[in-house]
Design a protein that fits this description.
356 residues, OB fold (Dihydrolipoamide Acetyltransferase, E2P), alpha+beta, six-stranded mixed β-sheet, Rossmann fold, 2 domains
């Protein structure tokens, strides 16, 4: 096993006036045996970063280390990594066994060891009954498990996953997430996983890297990222529904937005322009004559165990999550919104950075 170190990693395409920089000085350390997820919207550079670790893209500046080795100039085959792709990349004419064993045969591993490794991986992934089948005879989830099995038998220092669950339906994605978690617990191989799905990131990661436009916005455990987002981007990207963000002016224990002056449960961190953030589950609704923020209900969404109440604070849209068993408010009803100081988040409107 081995750690992964990213030291001021930069990626540019083209030269001169046609130069385009897509990765802007990423620094991170993925510890030995750690499972780290890189998450961000499409086009943020997460797959490019993973491909540089894999050796499929050249590093323009900076260093990438796997273990104690700088791997910038090493071929993918020399990096002791195994990669699982979004599209499975299985050989259609080969059986499941031969697909999993192919890389070992190329390396001229003895047939007895090949059989032992494939049988062990098939046992972990519950593929034993399917070893003689062709990929076309398998479901999408089974094909993805074969792709993971092919990576396991390599016994690499590092696993790299490039959006491997994107082609699966919602139920299979949830099942395969459980299998990946189980796989990591059993094998303990350092893993770097790329996804645009923040639910995948939150459920799989021991730590997560949130990226935006080629820059690392925040790195931390899912709890740290969710509870203390470093920027307004992280606050709005992580969490479903996203954090409510309102721009206004703070003056002691008042926050002036477009419309009413809202009383705060505690003093703001500073005077002047700020962005206030509040998670939908950290606000509570009461009758309109109770003290709080006046919320005019516009729409209610039923999600089974919970409901989302959408309303307006002055000109700002606001979302509140309530228990699904509660009698919902009526559309058009004026309610009082209440919260606690410890649940308020503050950001600088100029930089988007968190303000303590």
């Amino acid at each position: 096993m081995a750690s992964i170190q990213l030291k001021n990693v930069v990626k540019r395409y083209g030269t001169g006036k046609h130069e385009l920089q897509v990765i802007h000085g990423v620094d991170a350390v993925i510890a030995d045996r750690e499972f780290v997820v890189i998450v961000g919207p499409s086009g943020c550079g997460k797959s490019t970063l993973l491909r540089m670790v894999a050796g499929l893209e050249e590093v323009t500046e900076g260093e990438i280390l796997i273990g104690d080795r700088v791997v910038n100039n090493l071929e993918p085959s020399e990096r002791d990594i195994a990669m699982v792709f979004q599209n499975y990349a299985l050989y259609p004419h080969m059986s499941v066994f031969d697909n999993m064993a192919y890389g070992l045969k190329i390396k001229k591993v003895p047939i007895g060891e090949i059989r032992a490794r494939v049988d062990k991986a098939a046992g972990i992934l519950e593929l034993g009954p399917f070893l003689d089948r062709k990929p076309r005879q398998l479901s999408g989830g089974q094909r993805q498990r074969v792709a993971m099995g092919r990576a396991i038998v390599r016994q690499p220092q590092v696993f790299l996953f490039d959006e491997p669950l994107s082609n699966l339906d919602a139920k299979l994605r949830a099942q395969t997430r459980i299998e990946i978690q189980k796989l990591h617990r059993e094998l303990g191989i350092t893993s770097l996983f790329v996804t645009h799905d923040q639910v995948e990131a939150m459920t799989l990661a021991q730590r997560m890297i949130v990226m935006k436009a080629g820059r690392m916005e925040q790195i931390g455990t899912p709890e740290e990222v969710y509870q203390r987002p470093a920027t307004t981007f992280v606050a709005s990207f992580i969490g479903s529904p996203p954090m409510n963000l309102m721009k206004g002016t703070a003056d002691g224990t008042q926050f002036n937005v477009s419309g009413p002056a809202l009383p705060l449960p505690g003093p703001a961190p500073r005077h002047g322009e700020l962005i206030l953030g509040l998670r939908p589950e950290h606000a509570s609704l009461d009758t309109s004559d109770a003290p709080g923020w006046p919320l005019r209900v516009e729409m209610i969404e039923m999600l089974g165990a919970e409901r989302l109440v959408y309303g307006r604070l002055g000109d700002d849209l606001f979302t509140v999550r309530i228990d699904g068993t509660r009698v919902p408010p009526a559309v058009g009803e004026l309610l009082s919104l209440r919260m606690e100081t410890r649940h308020l988040h503050w950001f600088d409107p100029a930089t988007g950075q968190r303000v303590e």
